[in-house]
Amino acid sequence: MEFLINVFVVLHLLGMAAIVGGWLAMRLGAPRSLVAMVWGARAQVLTGLILVALNELAHEDLNNVKIAVKLVVALGVAACAEIARARSKKGSEQPALLNAAAALTLVNVLVAVLWHTAS
User: Fold this and answer.
1) How many C-beta neighbours within 10 Å does residue 1 have?
2) Where do the structural domains in the chain lie, given as residue ranges?
């Protein structure tokens, strides 16, 4: 089970890298960076939910409040990326939404790393 959890942790991190990398590419003018951000955001939500399920199956103690906060933030990232992509298809660029997606991704990383449960 530990190996499977580690595989999904790697996939989760790759989703985060796609969001941040797509944002950086967008800042440098790459035209297809928005696709990477959208798929990275989708991967983050999906792999995060899978990680919670796998850890529950492994009978790990989970901080459900932290998980809920991370889920809400991840859904915000996905919403920003999806809306920006839809508007981009209609010819309206949305750099503010992409900046918000990148900022919320950073918030999620900070929550993941800095929010420790009191033991």
Assistant:
1) 11
2) 2-114
